[in-house]
Write a sequence for this structure.
């Protein structure tokens, strides 16, 4: 337990415990590339069908870091390390697995569990994909394997951009503004940076009045 000096900003015992957990979780070795597998402590079960993907845990794990860094900025190396590890995983195949693997319409859509049909217009039951099925390849956009460059998949790149902003805010480090590779699966390898993702999203919004997708 760190020594508390009264009169200075501090994290609560609970917040320090959460930070210890995040650091241990983020720095435990695993492999999110296509031939690897995330460590079991990354949640891919909760909130099915809309959010039951490993990257949702990356996103959720990032929220507390900027808030804690405002309270104890001297710990920025620890905060930066956690965010850097989250971001590195977000560039990997497993982070975009839904977009890369859910090609076309969901073959299960006529046989969803009953509770899922509440997410679907009643008159389209059995003929409409449940929210959470990304349906890469459907018309009018066709197959687009780049999860950032695609016309759709807004939530993937939007949350990733948010996390990139957290890292820059907390550390002041432009590391992620240098080109980095996404997905890294042979020909399905795509190069982006913090700025080029922001510019791409801005262009998508400006071209489509009702927004991306």
């Amino acid at each position: 337990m760190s020594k508390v000096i009264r009169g200075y900003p501090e994290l609560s015992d609970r917040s320090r415990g959460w930070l210890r957990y995040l650091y241990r979780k983020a720095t435990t070795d695993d492999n999110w590339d296509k031939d690897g597998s995330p460590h079991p402590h990354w949640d891919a079960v909760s909130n099915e069908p809309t959010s039951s993907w490993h990257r949702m845990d990356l996103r959720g794990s990032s929220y507390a870091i900027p808030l804690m860094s405002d309270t104890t900025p001297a710990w920025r190396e620890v905060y930066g390390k956690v965010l850097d590890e989250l971001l590195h995983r977000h560039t990997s195949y497993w982070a975009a697995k839904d977009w890369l693997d859910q090609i076309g319409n969901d073959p299960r859509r006529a046989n969803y569990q009953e509770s899922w049909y509440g997410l679907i217009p009643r008159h389209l039951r059995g003929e409409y994909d449940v929210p959470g099925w990304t349906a890469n390849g459907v018309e009018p956009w066709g197959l687009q394997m780049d999860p950032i460059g695609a016309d759709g998949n807004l939530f993937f790149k939007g949350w990733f951009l948010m996390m990139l902003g957290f890292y820059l805010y907390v550390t002041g480090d432009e590391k992620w503004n240098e080109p980095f590779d996404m997905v890294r699966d042979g020909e399905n390898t795509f190069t982006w940076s913090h700025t080029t993702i922001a510019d791409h999203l801005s262009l998508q919004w400006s071209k489509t009045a009702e927004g991306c997708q």
In short: The chain has a mean pLDDT of 94. The chain has one domain: 34-207. Strands lie at 180-185, 188-192. The CA atoms of residues 177 and 194 lie 5 Å apart.
